[in-house]
Amino acid sequence: MKVVIDAMGGDKAPYEIIKGAVDAARELNVDLILVGKQEIIQEELKKHNIDGLNIEVVNATEIIENNESPTMAIRRKKDSSLVVAFKLLKEGKADALVSAGSTGAILAGGIFLLGRINGIDRAALTPVIPGKNGPFVIVDAGANADCKPNNLLQFALMGEVYANKVLGINNPKVALANIGAEEEKGNELTKQSYGILKENIKGFVGNIEGRDIPNGDVQVVVCDGFTGNMILKVYEGVAATIFDILKSEIMSSTMTKIGGMLLKPVFKKFKRKFDYTEYGGAILLGVEGLVIKAHGSSNAKAFKNAIRQAKNAFDGKILQDIKEELNRINRE
Amino acid sequence: MKVVIDAMGGDKAPYEIIKGAVDAARELNVDLILVGKQEIIQEELKKHNIDGLNIEVVNATEIIENNESPTMAIRRKKDSSLVVAFKLLKEGKADALVSAGSTGAILAGGIFLLGRINGIDRAALTPVIPGKNGPFVIVDAGANADCKPNNLLQFALMGEVYANKVLGINNPKVALANIGAEEEKGNELTKQSYGILKENIKGFVGNIEGRDIPNGDVQVVVCDGFTGNMILKVYEGVAATIFDILKSEIMSSTMTKIGGMLLKPVFKKFKRKFDYTEYGGAILLGVEGLVIKAHGSSNAKAFKNAIRQAKNAFDGKILQDIKEELNRINRE
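ok -> structure tokens follow
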């Protein structure tokens, strides 16, 4: 398998990105194409042992920044590391693309440069989130702020394939993010979507309320991108706030400092459990190719795991599965 | 001031409700009407010292349960504690109503039995949430799953008055819950609402993303009821999950148990900071009367604080202020 890497995307590019890519090449036995400013990449590669690894470097002189208009940037910066990477993927020179760059640009690139899978109306950003009892995905987490029931059906279908093939969950549970447990609860979108999901999605278990999402007992949380993004951000915000406060309180006296020291293994274990870097990033589901958006602040480990995620999606043949599921639904 | 109490509503009714009400009568110097099964209430009152307190008991033979259809229940159970309490409020025999009963029934009662304030199209459920740097409100947190920009404007206006008069914040900051900081971000509703809020709301500071909500730097978070309810529930869910996990990890070894003991003051302080019972409950803004929905699981302290909230809203003359603000906006 060959993965094309946007070597210039991400807050910690190029150092951590290239380190993570080299680590992945060795550990996961994948071939790489690193795209970006050739001199910089070559210089970075010298810092690592790349003996026996299959790493190609492709020059790209431009970089897409986070503050640019994504669609504009994708159209105009034709020699950016991201656009060149997308072209290589599109031409079949790589099997997957991984970037820690601008989410908007990766979305725009996926939709305009790769195109959507035939039968999919909207592509969805699908992050893997650590839950109490295991990881889960949110589809969509921000690509489509306004959605129709049919979009949610397609999100559910793609999320189910992903949870099964990449997270390795047999018969993943799929639920509709909603503000009540009963079928008739919710807004117009969720009310209209419930029946369609019930009819078409094998693992559909009904509605899931916000309070139950962190448990991770449901592996696919389906919603419009506005709701999904809100869930994701509140999730991160509350967790960060709690640890901020605990930390500053622990530092407030000698007694509590000692207590904090004794609890180090607890906090460490907790952090590991809720460490997004373990899961890589968010996959862009619904486009004609495997595209992984690694977290913007990815370090080498997070980026390596994003490449692992790409490999699992490739090995799991998820694109093929999604197409087969689409055919099944359309036949029924 | 006289507060009418639904003595039969809530998971811990009647004991904790009546205890909280009696405590409030003494501490806050308010008069009470307790509505519910007379014999039960009289029996409960014997457990407390009510010398010198002005407490009236009004008999009501029915109880509205959480699992009933709210609108149906309000219409049919005319002798329920909640409906009788609403009637007393409507007739001017009390200045505010407090209930820990079914949220849906309280909403339906407020809208159908009291009616909306002239000029307000939708009533909004407005809970007070503890944030890192202070409390904030979410308007709406679940009364209206689908909203229009004009609803959000009215929510913002009412929330601003409430934060000012009841939370006691001078010039509260008001923000639109959204999935991006820039004006043009969001779904159709937020995109259409931004300009209207900017034009009409003094304290409007733009969009707030989910990640920043827990900080409490913005005191009024404006959104449709679907989004607000989702934010609220994810907030509660993540916090509960984190403490569940920490607790079980702390109990896993002697060392960590000792650490946990030393950190007791930290956890206690934290719990107090994030204790919803400190703030009472959610006010129903936009109806012709002061209605407080106390948390369903309210104990005496939480219920007492809900009565305090009613008193602050009464003393702050928020109904009058809301009407004046509505006039101001309509004049402009």
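The radius of gyration of chain A is 20 Å.
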